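Fig. S4 source data, part A: sequence.
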Amino acid sequence: MSDHSNLENDSSTREVAEVKPVRRISKIWFIPLVALFIGMWMVYYQWSSQGPLIVISFPNATGIEAGKTKIKTRSVDIGVVKKIELADDLQGVLVTARMNANVASLLHKDSQFWIVSPRISLNGISGLGTIMSGPYINMAPGEEQEKSTHFSALSAPPVTPAGTPGLHITLNSNAEFAYKEGDPVIYKGLKVGEIEDTYFNFEERVVYYNTFINAPYHKLITENTKFWDTSGISVQLNAGGVKFDTGSLESLLTNGVTFGVPEGIPSGDVISQRTNFDIHSNYDEASEQRYKLSVEFVILVKDTVRGLHVGAPVEYRGLEIGKVLAINPPELNKAYLLEESFDIPVIIGIQPGRVQQSDDQRGLDYVKKQTLVWVSEGLRASLKMGNFLTGALFVDLQHYPDEKPSKISTLLNYDVIPTVSNEFAQITAKISAVLDNINQIKLQNIADNTNTMLLNMTQTAESLKKTSENFDHLVSSFQGEKLNSQLAETLNSLSQLTKDFSAGSENYQEVNQTLRTIQNTLNDMQPLLLQLNNKPNSLIFGDGIEEQRLEPKAAKRGQAPSPTGNN
């Protein structure tokens, strides 16, 4: 009973368990769901933040590796190569690259791509930094508004990357000199630009050079700017002599173009867009472009035109007033060649700008009118030597008052300026005239007369010689006989004289007596001569000493007188 009651008490005190239904999804599944959401968000973020895919066409894939080769601009990574495959036509490779999202706005249609690697050229050494890091693809953003994802890479780095500040111009030339990409544009020794690329127009036979002038030097390009060649060493041989022109050291090794505004031309307005310019061979030719108009005349040369070239100066009293435009042109040659006396036609141009006249139609009319007036008053043209070293000729216009007045003539609508022979032709003509006069002399008659005269002179000389010998013989014989008789008489006289003065003769004794008398006289005169030698004035004034008289004194007694009169 007690146990039964205890059980009842326990059941009354035990709580009844509440049965709830079991949940089908456990909370632990939230962890993979969150991970899945994070992964999806990361994929979306990666997809939304990645840049566009671009395709670049290269000639070859040298140095490019998928997943490794970077794309850079200004040395900053902006993409990486993802895939490399051959082009469908097998003419190149297609490189697919993933670009950063922040550079999508830089993918203009004219953007440029090229491979940067070590490169050595005349313009210098570049790409040395890739020796350790390896080649990479460089990009130069374009300027066009249109975007693109397909590009063609350059085979070499561009001379002027897109976006570089400056001015693009086009130079053209039909001369023999040529340039290549990278050749410098020089201004007063400074490199201010480069030639970007060349193009030859087969129809025009003209080479065009796309050129870039760096800022701020592009402000030097004006509408009156002239370009000329400055390659290597230029040697000019003309009527002005020999002239050497050299550019900078860089232009000596390659080629080069320089520019400027020739003296006497206004600067003009600055060019702000692409413009075409001609390349002239030198500064002088470029400077000539300021004289655009010229009055054309014809001179008919009777002498040789060797040494005369197109472009030779036309001078008036030493001042250059024009140029030679053509020598023996075909149109004048056909019209004048069949004449009896063929003179070589030369077309010259007188430029109004060189004679202080306006370079327009009014200046042309004035120059033409004045020239024709001078022609009627004696203006003549002649060819003269400008330089003896080169032999170059020029056309000289001078007034010749002694020339007969000439009527104005024309040849195929060209007014003709009469000519006179040059100084060499005149000298040659005078020499020829002298030779002709000499040839006209009868030299045989002169020779015969000369021989006869020489024979007569020889005979006369022989006669004079014989006469001289006879005269000498006569004189010598006459003078010898007379001289012998005179010598004989003289010897006889000397002999008689010798006998007269020989020892024992009367004359000899007289001479001896005379010599003794002279000797005695000299002895007597010796005291007088001694006194005069001591006192020259003693004959006039005496000797100044009283003459002491010697008186005899009486002798003392007992003493005999002394011999001297003294005691």
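Fig. S4 source data, part B ends here. The chain has twelve helices and 26 strands.
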